[in-house]
Amino acid sequence: MQIDLIQEARRQAEICNACRYCEGYCSVFPALHRERAFADGDITQLANLCHNCRGCYYACQYTAPHEFDLNLPKALAEVRRDSWESYAWPQPVARRFHTYGGAIALSLVVGITLTFLALRFIGSRDGNGFYAVLSHNAMVAIFLPAFLFPLVSLAKSLRQYWRAVGGQTLRFRDISAALSMVAQMKDLAAGHGDGCNYEDEDRFSHARRFAHQAIMYGFLLCFAATSVGTVMHYVLDMPAPYAIWSVPKVFGLTGGVLLTVGCGWMAALKIRAERNLGDARAWGGDLGFIALLGFVAFSGLMLYALGSTAAMPVLLALHLGSVLSFFLITPYTKMAHGFYRLTALIREAQQK
C-alpha cells in the first residue's frame, strides 16, 4: 500500500478525532472516535467504511483555506482505491482498471470480439432461441470459468483485507447487522437521515442512495434470474427458452430495468459531483465501470425485446461479450467496492 496516502489519511483522522463535530454522520466517525491512535489497518478499515457522502467535508471548519486543509472524503477515497489494488489478485493487472476507463472499454471490445469468434467458429447445430446461435454446452464452457474466476479472486483479496484490519471469527449476528446496513444503504442517508451532499453543498438528497439501491437490487434480480434458470434447466428438466411471465424472465426484466436506470442515474450524479472530494485518479475508471454495467443491462433488455428478430445473433454477441468482460474484470473495478464495504461493515459490527 502507498505509505503517503495512509499517512495523510492518518493526519486528517487524528484531527477529526480531536474535533468530534461529525460524530453522528455515518459509520466512519463512531469507528474513528473509538481509537486513540491509528494503525495502517485502522485507516484501511475507515476508508472502506466511508461511502463518500461528503457531508463531513461541507460541515468541517478545517477545510481549505484553513491551515489544516482537511478533505477527509478525498483522503479516504484514495486509501480505499489503493487498498483494492493492493489486495487484488492476481496483482500484475490490479492497478489498471480502477484508474483508466479506457482499459475497461478495451476489455469490452475484446469480450465482444471473442464472443463473435465463438459464434462464428463454434456456433450451434440445433437448439431453440439463443441456443440456435450458440449451444448451451458452449455457453457453459465459456461463462462458467469466467463466473468462477472473480469469486476466487475476490475471496483471496478479501482474505488479505480481513487479516489487515484485524478481523475475528465470523458470527451470524455481525453478518446480519452488516447486511441490514447494506440493504438500507443506511450510511448514504447520513446520521441525520436527510441524505448526503454528494451533488450540492447546500442540498441534502437521497438520490445517490436510491441510485445505488437500484443498481444493487437490479443486479441481485438478474443474478436470481440466472440462478432460477439454472435450477429449472438442470433440476426440473425445463430448458430455455422461457415464457415472458416465467420467473427467470420476470426477474431478468425487472433487474435489467433497475440496473439500466440506476447506472444512468449514478453516472449523471457522478458527472455533476465535485471531483476533488473523491479520488480524482479513479474518476475515469469509475465512470467506465458504470457504463459497462449499464451496457450489460441495456443490451440484455434489447435482447429480450428483439430476440425473435433477425438482429438477435448480433445482439446476443454484444450482450454475451459485455457479460464476459464484466466477469473477467470484476475484481479490478468499482464492483469490488461492494464486497469490501460489506466486509468492512461486518468488521465494524464486531468492534461495536
Automatic annotation (TrEMBL):
Coiled-coil stretches noted in the UniProt entry, renumbered to this chain: none
Transmembrane segments: 100-123, 129-154, 214-236, 242-267, 287-306, 312-332
Domain of life where this protein originates: Bacteria
Alphabetical list of SUPFAM superfamilies matching this protein: 4Fe-4S ferredoxins, Respiratory nitrate reductase 1 gamma chain
Keyword annotations: Membrane, Transmembrane, Transmembrane helix
Protein's UniProt keywords contain RNA-binding: no
InterPro entries: Citrate_utilization_prot_B, NarG-like_sf
Name of the featured protein: Tricarballylate utilization 4Fe-4S protein TcuB
Organism: Falsiruegeria litorea
Name of the encoding gene: tcuB
